[in-house]
């Protein structure tokens, strides 16, 4: 007897494997997260994100140039302000670091670049929360929405193509959409961090932006509970109804079921954010010689696409784009 089906026939050569591959991963599927800090004279390496920096405007331009040259034409920008206050006012200041950087990238690269702006307040507030904190320590949802609307307008005015609210306040997409439409910014894309989980994997990011949540607090009253799957669909549907153009899931690897659910249920583009902790784990194990870093990175990001994401926000963008070009 011989086996009637021999799946191995389709795996014999690289060319056959390429022919029958179900998933493709290309540099154009990546969005590179970038940090720009106020008041630096030189780019400042982020130790928990090897290969990443708090950028000056000048080093930011160099990085974007390199990304474009390897086929990565989308970036998401995070600002690190020199001063913070209770409400995070630097987030909507016309001369705030993120707005200055957005404007200069827009001027330098035009429409060649898809320019995304993360919209949140935690980098800008003294207490490190994503919104307005009441005297009892809770986060005031609706007071926060007013501030998000201001930030969205500042980012739109500075030239962002995509506004990406990451604070997980109820109604944030509607508030931002209304503000944008009210100011005739009808072409601005909203990419909603729709299903953003209260994850332990954001640690290196918080180092990168210098955020510490006051009193050892957490974000569990606004970010999602990792035990919940159905709830992600509810969040995502609300965001689409409120005017989101793209839905994002975050983190990526631990939430592939969510990516698959949203892909099946919705007809908007789905993104996933392979977050700082996911990057750092691969980098740390690779530095110890325990895994082949680029191979694992490629495997993970391919899995995100296989699960149903159209594109991936990843700190591996540049490195893997270079790898894929080889
Ligand atoms: C909030 C925000 C966070 C990340 C992106 N936007 C941090 C948080 O929710 O605490 C995390 C990204 C990462 O870990 O790579 N401004």
Could you report the average pLDDT, rounded to the nearest whole number?
97
CATH superfamily: Aldolase class I
SS field, number of helical segments: 11
CATH secondary-structure class: Alpha Beta
Order of helices and strands: HEEEHEHEEEHEHEHHEHEHHEH
Q: Could you say what the CATH topology is called?
A: TIM Barrel
Question: Roughly how much helix do the residues carry, as a percent range?
Answer: 25-40%
- How many strands? 12
Description of the structure:
The structure is a single chain. 39% of the residues lie in helices and 17% in strands. It has 326 residues and is α/β, with parallel strands linked by helices. α4 packs across α5. The longest helix has 18 residues, at 141-158. Bound molecules: ligand PBG. The site of ligand PBG has 9 residues, from loops.
Give the gist of this structure.
With 326 residues, the chain is of the alpha/beta class.
Task: Throw out a few tags for this protein.
11 helices; TIM Barrel; binds ligand PBG; two-stranded antiparallel sheet; 8-stranded parallel beta barrel; alpha/beta; 17% strand
């Amino acid at each position: 007897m011989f086996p009637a089906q021999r799946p191995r026939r389709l795996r014999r050569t690289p060319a056959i494997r390429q022919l029958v591959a179900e998933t493709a991963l290309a540099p154009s599927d990546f969005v590179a997260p970038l940090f720009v800090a106020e008041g630096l004279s030189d780019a400042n390496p982020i130790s928990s994100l090897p290969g990443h920096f708090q950028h000056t405007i000048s080093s930011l331009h160099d990085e974007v140039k390199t990304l474009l040259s390897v086929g990565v034409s989308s970036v998401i920008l995070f600002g690190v302000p020199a001063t913070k206050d209770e409400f995070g006012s630097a987030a909507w200041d016309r001369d705030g670091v993120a707005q200055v950087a957005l404007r200069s990238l827009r001027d330098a690269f035009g429409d060649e670049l898809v320019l995304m702006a993360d919209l949140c307040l935690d980098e800008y507030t003294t207490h490190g929360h994503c919104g307005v904190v009441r005297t009892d320590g809770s986060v005031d949802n609706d007071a926060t929405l007013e501030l998000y609307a201001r930030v969205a307008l500042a980012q739109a005015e500075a030239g962002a193509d995509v506004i990406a609210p990451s604070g997980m306040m109820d109604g944030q997409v509607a508030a931002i959409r209304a503000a944008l439409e009210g100011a005739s910014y009808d072409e601005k894309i909203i990419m909603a961090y729709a299903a953003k989980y209260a994850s332990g994997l954001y640690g290196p990011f918080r180092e990168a932006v210098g955020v510490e949540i006051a009193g050892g607090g957490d974000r569990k009253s606004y970010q999602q509970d990792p035990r919940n799957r159905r709830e992600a669909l509810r969040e995502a549907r609300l965001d689409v109804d409120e005017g989101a153009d793209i839905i994002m899931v975050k983190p990526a690897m631990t939430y592939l079921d969510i990516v698959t659910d949203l892909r099946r249920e919705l007809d908007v583009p789905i993104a996933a954010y392979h977050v700082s902790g996911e990057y750092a784990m691969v980098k740390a194990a690779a530095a110890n010689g325990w895994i082949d870093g680029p191979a694992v990175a490629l495997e993970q990001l391919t899995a995100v696409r296989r699960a149903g994401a159209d594109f991936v926000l990843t700190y591996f963008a540049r490195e893997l784009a270079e790898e894929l070009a080889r």
